[in-house]
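## tool: complex_structure
## caller: assistant
## args:
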Amino acid sequence: MTVAAPATMRSTEPRTPYPVAARELLRDTLLDAAGAELYERRWSDITMADIARSAGVSRQTLYNEFGSREEFAQVLVMRESDRFLDAVEHAVRAHLNEPAEALAAAFGIFLTAAAENPLVRTIVGGDGAEQLLALFTTQGKPLVDRATERVTDVLLSGWPLVARQDAELLSECLVRLAISYAALPQGPASMTASSLARLLGPYIERVVKESSA
Amino acid sequence: MTVAAPATMRSTEPRTPYPVAARELLRDTLLDAAGAELYERRWSDITMADIARSAGVSRQTLYNEFGSREEFAQVLVMRESDRFLDAVEHAVRAHLNEPAEALAAAFGIFLTAAAENPLVRTIVGGDGAEQLLALFTTQGKPLVDRATERVTDVLLSGWPLVARQDAELLSECLVRLAISYAALPQGPASMTASSLARLLGPYIERVVKESSA
DNA sequence: CACGACGTGTCAAGCAAGACGACAGAATGG
DNA sequence: CCATTCTGTCGTCTTGCTTGACACGTCGTG
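## result:
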């Protein structure tokens, strides 16, 4: 029962000053508003005015904060992908001893989550989300780069002896495969996950083994 | 694994508009700042300027938001007590079938949490917190009233047939006893809790029985 | 006792962020 | 082809936070 000393009261941790927190809150509120709208309408039917109103803010502030509809969508997608990466990271850390298992678990988690995620569903499933879809594919460089970087970091922190180049190659391919299967699923998530584990298992075993030799 | 659909994305729930959330955030940040300061210094050594600075805000906004040092302290204490009441509420709901047990559990939780809570510790333990102490006792009407009301609500929602008057009497006495034992502990928390359960058990059994008759 | 130092509470002026209204340009649909 | 609607931008107005100043009361010190 830790109600007695809430996290906000630990003196050692650096509490975020209000101005910073307020800005963060503003951006989050706007992104959340968009997310909520996406639950009901498709992206092409949601106007900037809708998002601003839904966040309780003027359209101008939305533009001040994000520049344009494009950029806003970019950030929205980015934030969502970060959440996926959190889950993936967690899954990998739970299987540090069996690399292939880690891969299967991470992919399983990812694909399951993706299948349920409303943002992903609206993109994959329906019309009117072409703009968003592009952010994962043709315009997806920022996303792929960032995701690759994060996955690389996870790999290197979990298996420090693996060569960075190997980790980067693996990460990028994983990210691309993840996006591909999220966009166009093939059979159940666990099946896909284990298939990929079989496919990439040998490579993983190899680089891990080499590193520990 | 619910990472896929974060709570902030449920369309049905009423998302809080930014202006409201920002205000809330401002107040919380200030209160948290005070809490953090209380970890290190005593209340009488903490200036309004300290709190404002620690929250990353000007002294004036602190005054705009809370009026005076007194009022600020009042709110601070109030918020903390609300957290305790959350814990108590939770404990009670876990023992809806055995009223006396519920009482013992709630008191046990409460006293244990109070003993560990930094705010309470600074008030009970040391000098320089007389102003805060007063808010629990001589100036404690708002706190006692509010706490009594909340406890009454919990009781009535758990045992709907109990007469409101009985619940109110019991609640007020419980609140007052809780404050008293928090301010001046007597032996271990569990001991005190069971003693009180023995003391008030008969009354509780009585009103519950009467109500179900 | 008088004095300076310090904290509270208040005020006015300055400034930055958001709200509001309006507009050009592009896309959409009747 | 015209009307509508949305995007993106601009200028003005309002609001809220900041800054600096000051009166007042309290405390510790010479």
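## assistant note: Residues 19, 47-49, 59-60, 63, 67-69 of chain B lie near DNA strand C (CB under 10 Å from a C1'). Chain B touches chain A through 46 residues (CB under 8 Å). Handing back to user.
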